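ARCHIVE CARD
CATEGORY: sequence design from structure
SOURCE FIELD: tokenized fold
FIELD CONTENT:
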């Protein structure tokens, strides 16, 4: 993992040359979703009516040496004018991409869900599923399609500064260098395979680097690591998915914690319009506790957070009507803290 940044830079400068390009084509796509949600552990937690939107401006073209390029910027929040952006250069040796809050490589989502994969669509709580480069400005390299057996594609990603999470202009410096106590750089590798029709296998591993915090536990651990491995399989109208992973975040002080996760679900297309799905997502937090006075060793507390979600999606005339019901035990890794959430949505794509 330590040489990922060197590999990406080497591929970048060996594959890209200064050359003229042909005029590209611009397209605009997007969608709007209106939702009515009740959330929290009781009726007093409140209700919410809202409209989320996402507009993608995409352009693509070809350089005169045969290389291709793709650019996309998304307008999907009220606070940011262009918070999700990507620029990708396709070459014979693979794809080099530059991303801001884009280019997710983590395999923690198994891809099964009527309204969205796993806990990606709706969740009243937060799962600690590990690191992903799409939370930062990052650069990636992807192997060419068809190069590796079983349809395998390997991706390498590098985050030069984990404090850089906002959109920067081409000449703007990082306005938030902040602390390196829990790591400045992030290196990540991911692989996906399609060995047979309907089966997709994915895995990822990530590691932080360049920590400057002092030795902060009895074992001096600082580096953060995470990994996920999962698969989804579709046969006819039925789709099944499973992911298992672990995450040990970097820390600046105190005792370490690590998370052991299992996410699985099933989705069934009743007909061309109606799909139902059921997911169970479990995350076990293991928190080390410092050695007490007079004791010979420390202890570890274990808390399992478990979420069950039932989703239904009905598509008609270009619109999708969805219902999601979520129940969580030990939410936010807090014993006896239970939450429920119901979301009714109407989505339109264009």
């Amino acid at each position: 993992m330590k040489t990922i940044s060197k590999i990406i830079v080497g591929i970048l400068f060996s594959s890209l040359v200064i050359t003229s390009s042909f005029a590209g084509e611009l397209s605009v796509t997007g969608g709007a979703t209106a939702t009515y949600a009740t959330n929290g552990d009781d009726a007093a937690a409140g209700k919410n009516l809202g409209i989320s939107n996402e507009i993608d401006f995409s352009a693509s073209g070809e350089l005169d040496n045969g290389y291709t390029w793709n650019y996309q910027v998304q307008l999907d929040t009220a606070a940011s004018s262009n918070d999700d952006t990507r620029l990708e250069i396709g070459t014979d040796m693979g794809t080099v991409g530059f991303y801001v809050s884009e280019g997710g490589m983590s395999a923690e989502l198994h891809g099964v869900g009527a309204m969205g994969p796993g806990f990606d669509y709706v969740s009243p709580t937060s799962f600690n599923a590990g690191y992903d480069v799409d939370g930062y400005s990052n650069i990636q390299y992807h192997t060419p399609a068809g190069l590796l057996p079983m349809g395998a594609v390997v991706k390498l990603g590098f985050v030069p500064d984990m404090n850089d999470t906002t959109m920067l202009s081409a000449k703007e410096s990082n306005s938030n260098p902040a602390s390196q106590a829990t790591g400045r750089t992030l290196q990540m590798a991911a692989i996906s395979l399609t060995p047979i029709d309907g089966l997709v296998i994915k895995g990822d591993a990530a590691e932080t680097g360049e920590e400057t915090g002092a030795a902060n536990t009895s074992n001096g651990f600082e580096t953060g690591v995470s990994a996920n491995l999962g698969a989804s399989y579709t046969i006819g109208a039925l789709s099944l998915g499973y992911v298992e992973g672990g995450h040990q975040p970097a820390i600046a002080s105190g005792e370490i914690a690590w998370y052991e996760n299992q996410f699985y679900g099933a989705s069934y297309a009743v007909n061309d319009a109606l799909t139902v799905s059921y997911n169970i997502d479990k995350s076990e937090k293991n928190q080390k506790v410092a050695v007490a006075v007079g004791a010979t060793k420390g202890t570890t507390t274990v808390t399992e957070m478990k979420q069950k979600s039932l989703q239904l999606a009905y598509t008609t005339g270009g619109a999708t009507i969805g219902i999601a019901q979520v129940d969580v035990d030990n939410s936010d890794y807090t014993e006896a803290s239970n939450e429920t959430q119901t979301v009714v949505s109407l989505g339109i794509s264009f």
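CARD ANNOTATION: Residues 4-169+179-349 form a domain with the Porin fold (CATH 2.40.160.10). The mean pLDDT is 84.
SHELF: design records, drawer C
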